[in-house]
């Protein structure tokens, strides 16, 4: 017995201790997501790659340096002049450096294009950041809504338990039928089924949000939140025309126009001559004698055959530029519509809160009256349960309206900044 108790004690000590779940506010969730979200980490790596491309493009301004060395050993002399044999082994090395002076603007424009790509990478990161934060916000308020639904279910279940005790006393007194008791029990079982569905959805939402934050979902919860009447959204209003041109999507399309113009210049530059100067140093030891030589040279290359197809490449690049400019205009209009839609949705959700509050007040009064009628025997259990269900649904709609408003407020803020 002592042996068994000893091993049980050791086993209990080895069992993992589950830490209490830490409650997070929405701001804390967003802050952790910015630090630990893997999608954002990947986007930051894309920015780093764009930085390296920019540095790589800058190296094209530097001279092109190359070196070569060679040595050989022959089994016999390779040159025979009369009675003299020469060149059985030897060594040689060359070092050259070429500095481009003019390359048709291709180096300059390639560096400008790399800078544009660097800006594009930063704008894409900003877009990804906004999308991640919006998903965090949506999931956070979804968790809030589900938890509030569970609280509402608890309230309804307590009401049904009280009605069941009252109905049982009425049945024993002979003023109510046993079917009323069964009807109440069925309703409580229906609520229990709903609870299981909500618990499952809540667990999935917690896992999703914790994954976005890079933490363990089993130690995650949100801070209990209570709402007063939200502020009028008019305080957050920004004209759509002003906001559209500040959106990252619009700025990205502007960079696409810039890139198309630079690519057109590069196509033109491919048809221009290239000029460079260089120096070449030679060391040789071929006949048991060290020799060194230096050479200065200039190169001029004219791409004559490239002119045949180059004009078509230029026209194609010009078409690409025109398409990018048209897409910029289209993007501005689409963003303006998107902002208008986000604003209308925000105003609608604000008004829905007031409607939902009035529905709750009406449903509470309806339930109160039906409870009174049921006690007096002037209404049926079905009417009473309908009133209870209407209150439950109205409270859930109010919760949903409050959460939807917060999500749409964040979405509107994302689209005008």
Descriptive overview:
The chain is of the alpha+beta class. The chain has a single domain, classed as Outer membrane efflux proteins (OEP) (Up-down Bundle), CATH 1.20.1600. It contains 9 helices and 8 strands. The strands form 3 sheets. A 4-stranded antiparallel sheet has the order 2-5-7-8, with no helix packed on it. Strands 1-6 form a two-stranded parallel ribbon. Strand 3 (79-81) and strand 4 form a beta hairpin. Helix 3 (38-58) packs antiparallel against helix 4 (106-173), helix 7 (248-269) packs antiparallel against helix 8 and helix 8 packs antiparallel against helix 9. The longest helix is centred in the last third of the chain and has 71 residues, at 306-376. The protein is elongated and about 130 Å long. Belongs to the outer membrane factor (OMF) (TC 1.B.17) family. This is Outer membrane protein TolC. Pfam families: OEP. Residues 1-21 form the signal peptide. Its main location: membrane.
Rg, alpha carbons = 39 Å
For CATH, the homologous superfamily is named as: Outer membrane efflux proteins (OEP)
| First-to-last CA distance | 71 Å
Oligomer: single chain
> What gross morphology would you assign?
elongated
Structural class label = alpha+beta
Average pLDDT over all residues: 89
Main sheet strand line-up: 2-5-7-8
State the main characteristics.
transport, Outer membrane efflux proteins (OEP), two-stranded parallel ribbon, membrane, 417 residues, elongated, transmembrane, alpha+beta, efflux transmembrane transporter activity, OMP_efflux, four-stranded antiparallel sheet
């Amino acid at each position: 017995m002592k042996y068994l108790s000893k091993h049980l004690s050791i086993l209990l000590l080895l069992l993992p201790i589950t830490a209490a779940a830490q409650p997070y506010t929405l701001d804390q969730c967003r802050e952790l997501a910015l630090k630990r979200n893997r999608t954002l980490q990947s986007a930051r790596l894309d920015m780093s790659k764009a930085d390296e491309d920019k540095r790589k493009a800058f190296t094209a301004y530097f001279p092109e340096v190359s070196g070569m060395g060679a040595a050989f050993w022959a089994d016999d002399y390779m040159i025979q002049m009369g009675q003299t044999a020469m060149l059985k082994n030897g060594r040689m090395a060359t070092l050259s450096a070429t500095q481009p002076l003019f390359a048709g603007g291709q180096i300059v424009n390639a560096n400008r294009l790399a800078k544009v790509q660097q800006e594009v990478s930063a704008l894409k990161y900003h877009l990804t950041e906004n999308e991640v934060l919006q998903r965090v916000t949506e999931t956070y308020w979804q968790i809030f809504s589900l938890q509030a639904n569970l609280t509402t279910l608890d309230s309804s279940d307590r009401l049904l338990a009280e009605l069941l005790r009252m109905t049982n006393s009425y049945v024993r007194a002979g003023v109510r039928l046993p079917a009323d008791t069964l009807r109440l029990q069925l309703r409580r079982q229906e609520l229990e089924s709903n609870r299981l569905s909500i618990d499952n959805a809540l667990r999935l939402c917690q896992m999703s949000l914790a994954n976005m934050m890079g933490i363990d979902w089993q130690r995650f919860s949100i801070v209990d939140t209570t709402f007063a009447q939200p502020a009028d959204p008019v305080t957050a209003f920004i004209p759509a025309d002003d906001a559209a041109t500040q959106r990252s999507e619009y700025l990205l399309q502007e960079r696409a126009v810039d890139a198309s113009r630079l690519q057109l210049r590069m196509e033109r530059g491919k048809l221009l001559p290239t000029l460079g100067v260089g120096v070449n140093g030679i060391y040789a030891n071929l006949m048991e004698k060290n020799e060194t030589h230096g050479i200065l040279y200039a190169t001029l290359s004219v791409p004559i055959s490239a002119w045949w197809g180059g004009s078509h490449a230029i026209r194609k690049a010009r078409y690409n530029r025109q398409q990018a400019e048209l897409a910029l205009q289209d993007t501005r209009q689409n963003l303006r519509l998107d902002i208008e839609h986000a604003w209308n949705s925000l105003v609608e959700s604000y008004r829905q809160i007031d409607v939902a509050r009035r529905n709750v007040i009406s449903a509470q009064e309806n339930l109160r009256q039906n409870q009174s009628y049921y006690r007096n025997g002037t209404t049926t259990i079905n009417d009473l349960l309908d009133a209870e269900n209407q209150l439950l649904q109205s409270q859930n709609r109010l919760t949903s309206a409050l959460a939807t408003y917060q999500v749409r407020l964040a979405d509107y803020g994302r689209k005008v900044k």
